[in-house]
Task: structure prediction
Amino acid sequence: MVVASTAVDLARIQFATTSIYHFLFVPLTLGLGPLVAIMQTLWHRTGDEAWLRLTRFFGTLLLINFAIGVATGLVQEFQFGMNWSVYSKFVGNVFGAPLAIEGLAAFMLEATFLGIWIFGWNRLSPRVHLATLWIAVLGSWASGYFILVANSWMQRPVGYKIVDGEAQLTSVWALLSNPFALRAYLHTMLAGLIFGSIVMLGICCWHFLRRREVGLFRRAAKLALIVAVPVTLLQLIVGNRFGEAVTSAQSMKIAASEAQWNTCQPCGFSMFQIGGFTAEDQTPSFSITVPRLLSYMATGSFRGEVKGLNDLQAEEQSQYGPGNYMPNVHVIYWSMRVMAFLGVLMFMVAAVGAWLYWKRKLETARWFQWTAIVAIAFPFIAATAGWILTEMGRQPWIVQGLLKTEDAHSPSVGTAWIAVSLGVFVSLYLVLGVLDFVLMRRYARLDRLASSEEMPAPAVTY
Amino acid sequence: MDLQVFWFCLIVVFWSGYFLLEGFDFGVGMLLPFLPRTEPERGAMFQSIGPVWDGNEVWLVVAGAATFAAFPAWYATMFSGFYFALLLLLFFLIVRVVSFEWREKGESPRWRAAWLWANAIGSAGIALVWGIGLANLIHGVPIDSNGDYDGNLVDLFTGYTVFAGIAFVLLFAFHGASYLTLRTTGGLYERVRTAARWLAVPATVVGAVFLIWTVAVAVDRNDKDVFPVVVPAALGIAALALAALLAFAGRSGLAFTMTAVGTVAAVATLFTGLYPRVMVSSTDFSNSLDVPGAASEHYTLAVMTVVTLIVLPIILVYEAWSYYVFRARVTGEEVHPPTEALARPSSGSPSS
Result:
């Protein structure tokens, strides 16, 4: 790791905390949104009231999460300027544009139409009311695209030139069609759908276990499985293809994620290893390796060459001057594995669930119901690991090859202030996280839906 | 028109949109602990802004992101320089945002009271911080030759800036009360009308003093002539005075129009007084950030101009439509989905 001043480290911890926290809620919104919209569409088409009840039920869970996603999103936007003013000046010309477009073209749409949907049940015709939800979903998915365009520019800068020490946009088309961004977008949206469907499946199984409203949740489970099986499978393929994009843009990240110290051809994929994570200890004392698999994952060919950390370090030193250009190999190696193994596991859960559903055993197989409940945690852990891999794997750069993290923070913000703000945010996130979990758990019990009309103020419930 | 100037104007438009719309949400929030007496009335207060507050808040997201994109140096210096103020702002923002969704998700009176107060304090706090923050742009803060903030927390608090914060709080409270006179019924409506009358005079007087003081600060500290800054200031004072008269006359619709005009005029006064600077330096005037120095390159601005010219009219149409959909007065007695459908159990009803 680069030895950085404390202010930079604290600012990084604060940004990481907010980003990880933000991304616990956002993908659930991205994934539950279309699922709820599908349910309401089914109600609209069939007139079957079970779908209306499910729309209401999962819609409430969606909204509890949406609120906290919005709040942490604002912190994200403000933090660039607050903690990373040098970065903000350096990238504003390029990076600011997709953020501004996101606000204007996407988030405005999502927030306005979600508000109309929540309160519009009795005011709009069913058809228009249904349309408002789909428009809100469209807004949230468009929003994700522009955010990932901005983030991908930090991973693989395109369509710019450097003038007077600042990046200037030269081609908005290159920015928007950055191949890195398109793959990252697909990968992230699939992650959202995995969040939505796996969480939904887990909640359905919880109700099967409690023997509540089995008929109702059987429908929801079917929908969740129809989405989860193809999407988890597709994600394995897309995640792999995304790895190839990373290889071409950030060879160091891939080498670190495999703890691959020496250039190899063909390269085996290390499933598990003990040791081999530092420059002083490059050879693992124990490892399980699948021959040629890494070559395939990183290059698309079973005979591909993957450059090792030592060679890349030497290359970057000759290009950028003396310094350590390797990220923390230990963290990157394991975050990659946590993400990938959980990805496979989630596909297996979905596939077994679908098989049980087909055999009409889903409502009775208690062992699977417990598994699916535990699996609710998987997408959250996998997404967190994925972002750690993406962002920590880019270090020491904040913008790959252009600006180092240690040079990008706000000179006017002292260590003490960052410590204070970090304390405030962490305490706030902890309290809100606990309350969110309590609320979600409460509203995930169906009995509350039945009794919701006896609440003291039904007037404003949504 | 020069694209840099055009984008300065657009930033003013975004801030105006934010305060015009979210301003009355803040006002409704601040009045929450004082006006409603029953749970349905509290629900009605929340419901009066429930469908729209989130869309209103996006104007802040847009103002922030547009500043980042169009004036990176302004965004960088302002957001890092006002670090503590923005930390406080984000704290208020988060608890307030969450209070909208979460308050009615619990039944205990303590839970509901806590989130109601979170909304009220958050609303007042946000108004106060923005008043102080924006007033500091024109009053000036220490900026070094590198364009970085070079002061401490205390530098943000002066007589003028604190007064601006208080003016924002009062102005939005009055704006929110005017809004509620259009949206409530029954006993709550009577109390809202009284509140609007109580707030009318202090909001107008404090608002007028703030606007005159802003003109003086622009002349004194930002090298401006009285004209044209005085034009939006005079318009703002006239609008607020008219709003006060109309509130007493019981002309709710016109009174709300006038508080809206007053709010926009206040934003316009601040930014007219600021131009061509975007942040005044109090230590060495030549260190002030100005529009050409802080702006992005022509290409970035041109791209965003195209996007904005296409998208902004669409936004105005659908936001207007959302207000049209929810134009009816709120009684706090309605449930969203067709309730009879929910009452009917489906095939596998609860067994225990």
Remarks:
- The mean pLDDT of chain B is 90.
- Chain B has 13 helices and two strands.
- The first strand of chain B starts at residue 277 and ends at 279.
- Residues 186-221 of chain B form the longest helix (36 residues).
